[in-house]
Amino acid sequence: MNTQDQTISQKKGEAWFKACRVEDLAENGGVCVKYGEEQIALFYFTRRNEWYATQNQCPHKRQMALSRGMIGSCGEEPKIACPFHKKTFSLLTGQCLNGDDCTIKTYPVKVESGLVFIGVGQQHSDAGYSVFI
Ligand code: FES
Predict the structure, then answer these.
(1) Where in the sequence is the domain holding 102, given as residue range(s)?
(2) Is 61 in the pocket of ligand 1 (CB under 6 A)?
(3) End-to-end Cα distance, the chain
(4) Is residue 131 part of a domain?
(5) Over the stretch 35-93, which tens digit does the pLDDT of each residue have?
(6) How many domains does the chain have?
(7) Are β-strands 38-45 and 129-132 bridged in parallel, bridged antiparallel, or unpaired?
(8) Could you tell me the distance, in angstroms and rounded to a whole number, from the CA of residue 85 to the centre of ligand 1?
(9) Is ligand 1 within 6 A of the CB of residue 60?
(10) What's this model's pTM, rounded to 2 decimal places?
């Protein structure tokens, strides 16, 4: 799925880009969103009615795979399990929950008027993006 319309909104030093529509994600599913050269995994955790975004690359073997992982909970902590070797990461902090010394980058997500925005901190000069399911 590709979306042609790209919107970057900046307020108070924040940069948000429009990743997709709410209905573009399956319940409890993830998609990979390309923003500039970055691949961002975006998740709709339907059971918790929460959205999360992380880097798509798993730090274990550098597979671009986290968007295809399985989301779940470890106690109250929402997590993503990489589909390759099942390393799990907190969707809140990015910390590896298997005790490994690695973390993943997390991004803020907001939903407005049926659209999903990812906070990217600073705008890329080449801010084109695509969404892949
Ligand atoms: S590549 Fe993700 S756990 Fe190994």
Answers:
(1) 19-120
(2) yes
(3) 7
(4) no
(5) 988 999 999 999 999 999 999 999 999 999 999 999 999 999 999 999 999 999 999 99
(6) 1
(7) unpaired
(8) 5
(9) yes
(10) 0.84
